[in-house]
Amino acid sequence: MIEKGGVINMAQKLVTVYQIESGKSGLNHLGERLDNIDSTIENVHTTLANDIATNEAEIARINEAVMTLASTPITAPVFNDVETYKVVEAKAEVTKVTVTSGATASGDIILTLNGSPVNIAVTSGDTTDAVAGKIQVAVDALADYTATVSGSVVTITAVNKRSEVDATFDGGTTGVTATVEVLVQGVDGLDLAQDVIITIPNGKDYVVGKGNLLVLRNGIPQVLADGDYVENSSTSIKYKAGVLKDGDVITFIIGDAGKLSYNMTVDYYTSGADAGRIQKVTYTGDINRTITYTYTAEGKIASETIVEDGKTVTKTYTYTNGKITGVSSVVA
User: Fold this and answer.
1) Residue numbers of the chain with a pLDDT score lower than 50
2) Which of 145, 247, 302, 313 is deepest in the core (most CB within 10 A)?
3) 229 and 295 share one domain
4) Number of domains in the chain
5) Helix or strand or coil: residue 106?
6) 230 within some domain
7) What pTM was computed for the model?
8) Which domain holds residue 127?
9) Domain check: are 124 and 134 in the same one?
10) What is the secondary structure of 276-310 as a DSSP string?
11) Do residues 224 and 202 lie in contact, with contact meaning Cβ atoms separated by under 8 Å?
């Protein structure tokens, strides 16, 4: 301090904390404090830089994982080509012929089976039982039928399970009369006692082994791995014997992954702690689906909500020490 003409002037000089005299009370302590402040500021900068890098890496990792999931080509086809087939069990026609009067004259009687006449010679005086016996022998010798006789009643069973023209009887001039009754109507269809091949109606086909054919039986999905049926060809399937029942409805739902056409858009959070993270992935076209994400304070996925085909599935994740320890799912 210099005093001159009643005016006090201060001589100013820039000094560092290291130049402060240690002998003056309190100044050395101030220097240490200033050094500590500098060090603290540097540490804060380092910590912030590390946090920013970590957050950016976490955001990038989440985005990459979600985008990989959302962008993965969907191999499951859209099943939209539906054909139905009603199982009709094939049945062999069974006919009962009852001889009601014997022969009064010799000659031929005619039993017509499925439109084909069978001539059977009878002799005057043949009783009803005798005539029935001759009918049984003649029919049983045919390749397409078997016959049994009990008294004056002959039971005729077709070898082939199919629809047939009902049998008729003509006694001619022999005096023989008989009644004909169809016990079981022959039906064209499937022989369910054997392996059954079902051809998809209307010339439709699918790709064998590619998972683009769904088969339902009476509305219940059939599991290919169970072995009840196999993919027999590109136009048919084959059921094991004894699985199907008469009247079963088989539904074929056919898809083709190659026909899929869809767009995907991604929306991001633009503010707040989740800024930069994926908020929603939306599919439109053959696939109509939205996936919405929320995140924890640490930036991990807290929940994902999937909306598709009128159904909402919400999955909630829990973490311990940064690792997933639980997932809950609610379907609405």
Assistant:
1) 1-12, 15, 17, 19-28, 71, 73
2) 145
3) no
4) 3
5) coil
6) yes
7) 0.50
8) 92-184
9) yes
10) TSEEEEEEEES--EEEEEEE-TTSSEEEEEEEETT
11) no
